[in-house]
Design a protein that fits this description.
Blueprint lengths: L2 H13 L8 H18 L7 H9 L20 E4 L2 E3 L2 H11 L6 E5 L5 H9 L2 E6 L2 H13 L5 E5 L12 E6 L8 H5 L1 E11 L6 E8 L5 E9 L9
Parallel strand pairs: 3-4, 3-6, 4-5, 6-7
Antiparallel strand pairs: 1-2, 7-8, 8-9
The protein binds S-adenosyl-L-homocysteine.
Keywords: Cytoplasm, Methyltransferase, S-adenosyl-L-methionine, Transferase
Subcellular location: Cytoplasm
Pfam families: PCMT (PF01135)
């Protein structure tokens, strides 16, 4: 069967709504393969054991629209509606690795989206606070956390630029939308000795993943890690 024919057949199956879902064992095999691909693509910054275990466990196919679930274990971003995307697994691994999480950590995520990254964080850290500005995405993610039993994840609808002051300070902060600058409220809510990972850059221009470290004495160091492409951080700031 040539590729075009396969693609056309597949498209027709999707169109007529008769895609047969894969079995749990098939998803599991694809998930293992995705994690191996992520490790291979990580080069000399491979994800640690706790991240590998988390990504082997979290069922990414439950975080994408049903019609895309068969593509969930490709190392690609995918659309999740409202013009937003679930991040590429390689980037999820890289950002999580940069946070150097410990199991007692309290983590803040800005940009819940599908909830996949928050679920990976929740497998490793003690608690995750995640903020999403688009209400239907936030509600959908909250339902997912509940049905998948992630009771250590707390969700909020709002502009994550301002963080979650009542729950601060955080051991680690992860921003999953591109900002033009490090949001000062987030820096304030980071514990001394804590780490923040944030993509910086203008929308549709080259953005860089930045590692921001607050030293125990309160001083801040910033390091540019890799070029990335994220949807812009929205909001009124
Ligand atoms: N972490 C997500 C992917 C994030 S895509 C996942 O694992 O699926 C970026 C998300 O950030 C989008 O859902 C977008 O709506 C959200 N976002 C953008 N600006 C925001 C803001 N100011 N506050 C909170 N969320 C924001």
């Amino acid at each position: 069967m040539n590729r075009q024919f396969a693609a056309a057949t597949f498209g027709a199956l999707i169109y007529f709504g008769c895609v047969i879902p894969l079995s749990a064992a098939e998803y599991e095999a694809l998930r293992q393969k995705m994690v191996r691909e992520v490790i291979a693509a990580s080069g000399n910054s491979p994800p640690g054991a706790s991240i590998v275990a988390a990504m082997e466990k979290v069922e990414r196919h439950r975080f994408v629209p049903a019609w895309l679930s068969i593509f969930a274990y490709r190392n690609h971003p995918l659309p999740i509606g409202h013009g937003q995307t679930i991040s590429q697994p390689l980037i999820v691994a890289r950002m999580t690795e940069l946070l150097k999480l410990k199991k007692d950590d309290k983590v803040l995520e800005i940009g819940t989206g599908s909830g996949y990254q928050a679920a990976v964080l929740a497998e490793i850290a003690k608690s995750v606070y995640t903020i999403e500005i688009i209400e239907p995405l936030a509600n959908e993610a909250a339902r997912r956390f509940q049905s998948l039993g992630y009771d250590n994840v707390k969700t909020r609808i709002g502009d994550g630029y301002y963080g979650w002051p009542e729950a601060a300070p955080f051991d680690a902060i992860l921003v999953t939308a591109a900002a033009s600058h490090v949001p000062p409220p987030l820096l304030k809510q980071l514990k001394p000795g804590g780490r923040m990972v944030v993509p910086l850059g203008a929308p549709f221009m080259t953005q860089y993943l930045m590692l921001v470290e607050k030293q125990p004495d309160g001083s801040v160091t910033t390091r540019q890690i890799v070029p990335v492409r994220f949807v812009p951080l929205r909001g009124g700031h």
